Every structure is written in structure tokens, then in C-alpha cells.
Amino acid sequence: MLIAYPGELFMRVLKLMILPLVIASLISGSSSLNAKLNGKIALRTFVYFLTTSLLNAILGTTLALIIHPGNPTAESAAHTELLRDTAPLNKAKTVSLMDSVLDLGRNIFPDNIFQAALQQAHTVYVPKELPGMVGNDTELSHTSAPVMASSSASASSSVNLMEWSAEQNVEWIRIVEYRSGTNSLGIVFFCLVFGTLLGTIGRKGYVVVQFFSAIFDVIMKMVTGVMWLTPIGISSVIAGKILSVDDVGFVMTQLAWFIFTIALGVFLYQWIILQAIYFVFLRKNPFRFYLGLVQPILTGFATASTAAALPLTFRCMNERLKIDSRITRFVLPIGCNINMDGTALFIAVASIFIAQMSNMSLNVGQVVTVVLTSTAASMSSASIPSAALVLLLIALSAIDAPINNATLLFAIDWFVDRIRTTNNLLGDCYAAAVVEHLSRNELKISDIDAYYKDDDITSDDQCEQDVNGKRKLSFPNSVILNVEVSTPVSNT
């Protein structure tokens, strides 16, 4: 506990900055571009995310079929004990892919922006009637919410309820309720629309834009201070997590082939596929770009969360790698929520792995189902640790694989989650670089438009006088002109 405590504080500080950083970056970034350019950038970003997620799902499925990590004879006594304790999982009603997609829509369009900062909507299935329980549907849903078995904790806490429901002929009903956690998708959508429309009202919205730009600059200064704590925080988080595992060697040995398959997929994607994508589009040395992201990669590995590493990712992308801030403020917050390349890879490998352990022979249709389900589920994943385990149940249900075998992966998810998070983080960064390159002409036109706006050139609130007596005209996200003047600065 004491060893992990500095890392806990480190993660709390990082998470503290996520919400103001996302809000400020999206509003200031989208307001600096016109609505047409925002639409083009959003389309390019979404197409890139969809393509790379599909590519990861195909890669994971291919590796799992070639390496064949799931050996049905390798089930250990510990696995058997674990399955006996969580056997009712297979009899519980789990959410489907359609439920996950519908929840995605509910979170993108929240009905309360303040609630979105604290809670997110999700679907659960509960028995229609439980003996001895009275009350309305809301009370029932809160009482029996763990039936969904979305995590190992909820599974173990609801064994008796599931055993009862398995013995009875129970009709399951779908209930939408709220769970703790920031609804980042809803906040991202609101800020994008707000910022885009803010940029269309001209000078009236200038003060608001400057306000959010100032917030973004202050958060970046806070990130600079946090960076000094990175070595201590990362070491503390990793050491504390390793110490919390009862027998690391035993767990790694039992699931060595599964871990090897995930690690190989991550290695191939990061060192070959991503570098090839970067070189094809930008014609630059991709490994120099990769090395510039070492600190965010280590932070993402330690925290197992792309969102927690977002403040450091912003700093490296803007200051070290010189990616246009208008693009990073737009792409990175969106990528944290919908671009889960590592998650798509994990779900694909895990689905094939569990099917192989269960002696299932998958036909071509089921393999294609795994690929498509992994892609769709990954884009609806939350940017939180171990979120992929919930989505794995959806993929297993799609191919009718035994859900209770997924409990074996709980033991190693703390480690595999860190590996795949680096894929998610790098996918966002490379997406920003590619989108910036594809949007370079539109960005130049935007700079020229800002330069020739008379209101921007002549307004006093954008004119300053430096110590050398030069008049400095500043344009947000464009250029800075120094003009020699021999008379005091005036409105003309």
C-alpha cells in the first residue's frame, strides 16, 4: 500500500486535469477553424480510427489462428477452481452488441451536461420479478445491477442471485441506468458543437475563446510540473500492481502463449504497421516521431489509461513534435474515447483464445464475426482500465462461446491492459500527424483568412507593444508580425 501510494497520487493529479483539458482543448481548437474545415477533419479522423481498429482486429484474429494460444489440455487446477466459483456467469444475461451501440448513442447525446461530468449511461438486464423484492423499476435495477456480470467483482457479489435465476424460468428485462464515471463522449460532442458555433459569431465570441485558450495554457503549465514526478509515479504504480498479484510467475506461465500473442501483435502494429502508415503519408522518419512519444507511452503503460496520459501527450505533441495545436486539440480528446486499437486487438485474440480452449472450431463466418464485433466493440469502449473485459463478453456471445472461460483472463488483465493501452495512445498520436498532413492546405487557407480579417488586425485587444517599441500584431494559431513604429500605437 505504501509503495503504491505515490503512484496513486500521481494518477489522481493526472485525472484531475483530464476534464478541464478536454473541454478547453476542444472548444479553443474547434473555434479557431471554420465549420467546413471541422467537418473535414472530423471525417478524416473517424475514417482513420475505423480503418486502424479494423486492421488491429484482423491482425489479432490472424495471429490467434496461426499461433493457437488456447490449448484445451492446459487448464490448471486454479482455473478449474475459478470456473467453479463463477459458474453462474454463463447463465446470466449479458448485454449484446446492439445494447453497446445504443449505449454509445445515449452517451454521445447526454440529456444533462453536468450529469455527463459524473455519470454515464449503460444497459443492464435484471430479472422481471424477484421473490421478496418490492419497489419500482428503478429500485429493482439498482438492487440487481450486478447481474450483468460486467466485472469480476460484480460477478462474485451476485452468485446467489444468479443461481436463483438459473433455477427459475426468469424473464429478463432491459434497464438503462447510470454508473459512476465521466461521460467523455457526451462532453466531447457538446464541446465540438459549442466551439464550432462559437467560431461563427465573430468578435462577440472572442472573449470566450480567449478564456478557454487561457485555461488550456494553464493546464499545460501544470502538466510541466507533473512531468517531474513521472519517474516516481510510474515506478510506484507498476511496483504496487506487481506486489498485489499473489503469484506472478504462476499466472504468467499458465497464460504465456496468450500474453505472447498480444505482445507480438502490439509489436508488429507499433514497429511495422504504424511506421509504414506514417512514412507513406508524411515521407519522414517515423522512428524519430515514435521516440518523441516515449514519456506518454510510459505513462500510458503505468496507468493503463489513454485519458490519464492525455496531458503529457498534449505537451509532447505540441512542444516536442510540433504538431499543429488546432489538430491535436481536435483529434486527441476524440481518440481517447473512440480509438481503441489495442482493445480491438485484445478482443479478437481473447475471443479466438477462449474458443480454442473450449474445443470450438470456428468457421469463416464466425471468424468474420469476431473481426467485425471486435472493431465495433472497441469503438464503444470507455477509456478506463480493464474496460475491454466487459466488451469481451459481447464478442463471446456473438460466436456463442462459453462466457465463464473469460474469468481466466481477469488474472492477467492488469498486465495485458497496460500493453494494449500503448497501442491506443500511439494510434491517437499517429492519427493527429496523418490528419494534420492531409489537412495542410485547409490549415494554410485558414491562416490566410485570419491574416486578412480587418477586425482581427485593427482590434486593440490583439495589439501589444513590446519593450523595444515595436508593435506586435498577434493572430491566434496563425502568425506574428513585428512592425516598426515611431509614433504611439493608435487605432489606425
CATH class of the domain at 2-73 and 178-445: Mainly Alpha
State the distance separating the first and last CA atoms.
65 Å
CATH architecture assignment of the domain at 2-73 and 178-445: Orthogonal Bundle
Q: Name the strands of the widest sheet in spatial order.
A: 3-4-5
Overall pLDDT metric: 78
Helix content: 55-70%
How large, in whole angstroms, is the Cα Rg?
25 Å
Per DSSP E runs of 2 or more residues, the count of β-strands stands at 5
Properties at a glance:
492 residues, two-stranded antiparallel sheet, transmembrane, membrane, three-stranded antiparallel sheet, Na-dicarboxylate_symporter, Proton glutamate symport protein, globular, mainly alpha, disordered C terminus, Na-dicarboxylate_symporter_CS
Task: Describe, in plain words, how this protein is organized in 3D.
The termini are far apart. This protein has a three-stranded antiparallel sheet with strand order 3-4-5, with no helix packed on it. Strands 1-2 form a two-stranded antiparallel ribbon. The chain has a domain at 2-73 and 178-445: Proton glutamate symport protein (Orthogonal Bundle), CATH 1.10.3860. A hairpin with a 4-residue loop joins β3 and β4 (470-474). Mean pLDDT is 78; it is low at 74-92, 131-167 and 454-492. By secondary structure, it is mostly helical. It is globular, with a radius of gyration of 25 Å. The protein is built from 23 helices and five strands.
Quick rundown:
Helix content is 65%, strand content 6%. With 492 residues, it is mainly α.
